[in-house]
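To: structure subgroup
Subject: Chain for Friday's discussion

All,

I'm putting the inputs and outputs inline so they're searchable in the archive.
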Amino acid sequence: MKIITLTNETKQNLLENLLKRSTTDYGEYEKIVDSIIQNVKQNKEEAIFDYNLKFDKCTITKENFQVTQEEIEDAYKVLDKQFIEVMRRSAANIRTYHEKQKRNSWFDAKEDGTILGQKITPMQTVGVYVPGGKAAYPSTTLMNVIPAKVAGVPNIIMTTPAGSDGKVNPATLAAADIAGVDTIFKVGGAQAIAAMAYGTEIIPKVDKIVGPGNIYVALAKRAVYGHVSIDSIAGPSEILVLADESATPKYVATDLLSQAEHDELASAILITTSTELAEKVSIEIDKFVNVLERREIIQKSLDNYGYILVAPDMETAIEAANEIASEHLEILTKNPFDTMTKIKNAGAIFLGEYSSEPLGDYFAGPNHVLPTNGTAKFFSPLNVDDYIKKSSIISYSKEALEKVHNDIELFAQKEGLTAHANSIRVRFE
């Protein structure tokens, strides 16, 4: 892994290189996605079943479109019982963490008859997209569904592609059941997003779509945004480790590799004040890459988007970390809590050498759906607030309005909106 001295120039080059991971040539994909969306809007299940056969090589009909309770029970039978218990413990941790995020409606009443407040209402129907194919992501199922349940969403539907045998991955089904999904449909890709966004004969229209997917899913979510809400357009995974000489090289190396194995566009960065640590981490990475199963993906990720940056001091290192605004930030310094207070931009922050990033992916409780590509500067992790709506409450008595009606009328007149002014004035003529 390349070791570079951190300067303003090298930092700028790094930031520009990371931006290349965002695909800009969407033309070909966008046309395909748009045609899929229009077909599903017009032909509904007929189009969906054709796409299931074309893309997933499975025959789905109205009779087997929705996952049955029997299929869920069968999924539990084939799964390792220990893994099922691990998923349940993980779900409990996720639920406990997100319950602390719940908000309550509030009202502020004054003696003159003024009542102001905010009413919290959960969304009615949320759609969760879960990828299928070769990989299964039960952890992502838990992370997307449980905050919605905590928020009080009464209807959660899930779409996920079936295999060529017409069955959904059993781990995905078990995770959906543990999390509390109400209905599961066998459809993936852009066609699933279109179905949830516009509704079909069987799938209800949702208020919001959450969940990761491939380029077709991402573009479909972007296309339907505004008609429904979405969580975000997720980018490639990324990790930044901020370390001083006290860090253990082997731990740093393995944590960087844990994200590099996601895909060839994943980014793994170490910023350290110690040249000795940088050199030892590079050696450890080479050792591990040779023995890990996904070494080809890891190597391409490291070659293109892997960096070890040596900073002159911790202040410079922290400044760079804030500019990169990484999805995952590990702090391995002598006093990680003190360092953390100077961090402004990060999706999730892991403190100390026993808080490795996979802890957050699977078990600790905070959500692993995080802002990527520097968007941690203005976006937050998926949370309970993403599944609620806030309504303002305003109530004035005659006495309260009388005190301020001249102010309101003047404001309206200055904006040239005389009907606004008149609606207040008539109450005091």
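Points worth raising on Friday:
The CA atoms of residues 157 and 183 lie 5 Å apart.
Residues 81-99 form the longest helix (19 residues).

D.
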